[in-house]
Amino acid sequence: MEKITAANVDTYQSELNALIVKIRTEADEKQKKKDLTRIDLLQRKISAFRTGSKVSRSTKRDLVAYSFIAPNFIGFAIFTLIPIVFAFLLAFMTWDGSNPIEWAGLSNFKKLASDTHFIAALKNTIIYCVGTVPLTMIMSLALAIVLNQKVIGRGIFRTLSFFPYVASLVAITSVWKMLFHPSKGPINNILLNVFGVAQDNLPQWFSGGLVMVSMILFSVWKYMGYYMVIYLAGLQGISGELYEAASLDGANTWQKFLYVTWPQLASTTFFVIVMLTINCFKVYDVAIMLAGGGKGELTLNSTVLVYYIYEKAFVEWKLGYSSAIAMVLFALVLIVTIIQFRGQKKYAE
Amino acid sequence: MKSAHKKAIFSKVIIYVILIIIALAMIVPFLWMLSASIKSDREVFQMNPFVWIPENPKWSNYSEIWTKIPFGKFIQNTVFLTIVVTCLQLLTSSFAAYAFGKLKFKYKNALFMAYLSTIAMPWQVYMVPQFIMMRKMGLNDKLLAIICLQAFSAFGVFMMKQFYEGIPDELCEAARIDGMSEYRIYANIMLPLSKPALSTLTIFTFVTTWNDYLGPLIYLKSQEKKTIQLGLKMFIGQYSSDYGLIMAGSVISLIPVLIVFLILQRYFVEGVASTGLKG
Q: With pLDDT > 70 as the criterion, what percentage of chain A qualifies?
């Protein structure tokens, strides 16, 4: 930092006075802002000299701010930032956790291309996303619109629809597995006795081809309450005047939705879709709980990316290979996020 | 005019029908859970006739679960973890968020970018190197590992910052002119105003920590360190046909989260709306 002398202070003072006069008549907003920061700086320098303090006020201010951030940031840097950097490096290495690390270049990624389990996991994860994201979005939006009206017991309905979200997966999936039990469960019982589905044709909800359908249905049920709340918050931000204006123009309910609600909710919808997609890519527990075998293993029908990351790392200790799979997961999330930003920008224009 | 009135009633009826169907879909699994938790294994799947409350409710399910597995220990671990993580998360996030939302300082944008850039990064991407690191630090099979893992999230800082930015700057300015220190402003002015945001963050953190499965699965190996989710899953694996007991354990595991949610939920929509979570 430059040393402030008495002579300096005088020049600062005169510059400051000139600026204060100038800013009153300044028309250009940008220049005005620049002047303001300059004034701020000058005032601080002058007062630093007058109070004679060694630590300038701005340094003090910075230190106070850092003291606010430090408790969180230190934990965040150690347990999140460093592992993230480590993960990127590890994807190009071979390591079993105890022997020396070896550079592997792109070989982990090359191996992925011909790994049938990985391809199945990638395919299932994408199918799960494609099924869950639009269904959850539509259901939560519909529910939010209904619950935004003046209906009796609105509070109770809102609370109820949030129950599945807060309920733990282990508990609630065990209920689902009972309800959809292939031979004894009430759902198949109704299919058998009410709809007359033949005993042999009763769906095996948690094995074979249906397992993805069950996972999607379950996830929509579990997560729609959460996104409903987000939509509800979005709906409450829409001005009532827009609807009044639409009514004056003779718009019916559907037209009001199409021309007022939907466009007004665009940024909320973008957000919901991105959050949903990211959360779907991360799917692991749902698959393990609904389709996992006795030791928590998944077959090619139900395997997902995170399960494979876990298997490769903590069962086989192929840490580099596991990190390469994690990079694929990251790339998927990144692509979705970029598309979202592009889309939002386009909408803003 | 008359037909318009009829139409209005008609749409009201439709809305209620939809609502009731959805509400039933949401609540029936929970009622089934409650009902099955006081049934014997034979009664659970009995359909003709189906009864919600059996003639002789098997309350012993609720006492037996404590003896079959160390359920009390699991609950104790989970309660400890959840409370510590939630407190740390609320304190450190709101603290850091105050600086990002209300103070000017050097490298503010760079520091905030560090948080922002990881917000979309799934934990699963870096869980393996994180585990290796924690193992090196001697945190393997320690409850402290889960605390380190859950307590400092970018999400909390981001959410609280959005909320603080919505509070007018004049409030802080006035306090500063009165000679209040930044710490006093945070504690006496900002914190009391942030009930909706803090409630929302509490619900999220509490629910996530209480219900976390993969984190404890990776870190907590020994029986006496396990959380309720791991314990319940283990129980299901061992006694897969003791349906009544499984349901009793599930009911017990749900109660704390539901209580916290019900207490804080009145701030919830407001909290989500004011913290930029709606995008």
A: 95
Contact B228, A167 (CB under 8 A): no
Per DSSP, the three-state class of A249 is coil
Q: Which of A79, A178, A189 to substitute to test the interface with B, most B CBs within 10 Å?
A: A79
* Angstrom distance (rounded) from CA B50 to CA B126: 48
Angstrom distance (rounded) from CA A223 to CA A241: 32
Residue spans of chain B under pLDDT 50: 279
Q: Does B213 touch chain A (CB under 8 A)?
A: yes
State the pLDDT at residue B279: 47
ipTM for this model? 0.87
pLDDT for the residue numbered A186: 83
Nearest alpha carbon to residue B110 among A68, A73, A340: A73
Q: How far is A17 from chain B (nearest CA, A)?
A: 23
Burial B225-240 (b: 16+ CB within 10 A, else e): bbbbbbbbbebbeebe
For residue B263, the number of C-alpha atoms closer than 13 Å in the C-beta half-sphere is 11
- B71-90 residues touching A, CB cutoff 8 A: none
Q: Assess B261–A contact: CB distance below 8 Å, yes or no.
A: yes
Domains of chain B (ranges, CATH numbers): 58-277 (1.10.3720.10)
Residue from A3, A99, A106, A91 nearest A45 by CA: A3
A172-206 residue pLDDT tens: 998 998 888 888 888 888 888 888 788 777 888 88
Q: Is the pTM of this model over 0.95?
A: no
Core vs surface per residue B166-188: b (16+ CB within 10 A) or e = ebeeeebeebeeeebebeebbee
Alpha helix locations (H) across chain A?
6-25, 29-51, 57-76, 82-90, 107-113, 116-147, 154-166, 169-179, 186-193, 211-236, 240-248, 253-256, 262-264, 266-281, 285-291, 305-310, 319-348
